[in-house]
Amino acid sequence: MNLALNDKQGKSVFGFIHAWNGLKAITRTERNFRIHIMAAVFAVAAGLAFRLSVIKWSVIILVIGLVLIAEILNTAIEKMLDYLKPDLHPQAKFIKDLAAGSVLVSAVIAVLAGMLVFIPELYKLFR
């Protein structure tokens, strides 16, 4: 029983290491991911400066997560298709466009949510 528990813990640690390596790789290699990270850092800094409520922080954290997850999945889909279909097949292009579209939708949602959160804060500041 104890051995099985240790084996599960080892697999969890091993899985975490792979996940961490994936995040390091996408940060190192994908310009758009770095842009999204910088936007997230800016949003967090603004949230700290405005001392956002818990509800507003929840919105900011959720949309940051939404955009980063969409970008990670988009990159994974693109890399997989590049590996499987080095010559761009029309279906592969369609799939890549869909994945990129999901990033665009998530980014637009994040911008709209950011406006709903930060415009009232800016209004209070300059009132």
From TrEMBL:
One of its GO terms (biological process) is phospholipid biosynthetic process. A divalent metal cation binds at E30, E78. InterPro entries: DAGK (IPR000829), DAGK_sf (IPR036945), UDPK (IPR033717). Substrate binds at E71. The chain crosses the membrane at residues 33-51, 57-77, 98-119. The keyword Transmembrane applies. It is a multi-pass membrane protein. Its cofactor is Mg(2+). ATP binds at E30, E78, K96, D97. GO terms for molecular function: ATP binding; kinase activity; metal ion binding. Keywords: ATP-binding, Cell membrane, Kinase, Lipid biosynthesis, Lipid metabolism, Magnesium, Membrane, Metal-binding, Nucleotide-binding, Phospholipid biosynthesis, Phospholipid metabolism, Transferase, Transmembrane, Transmembrane helix. It comes from the Bacteria. One of its GO terms (cellular component) is plasma membrane. It is found in: Cell membrane. The active site is at E71. Mn(2+), Zn(2+), Cd(2+) and Co(2+) support activity to lesser extents. Belongs to the bacterial diacylglycerol kinase family. This is Diacylglycerol kinase (ATP). It comes from Lentibacillus halodurans.
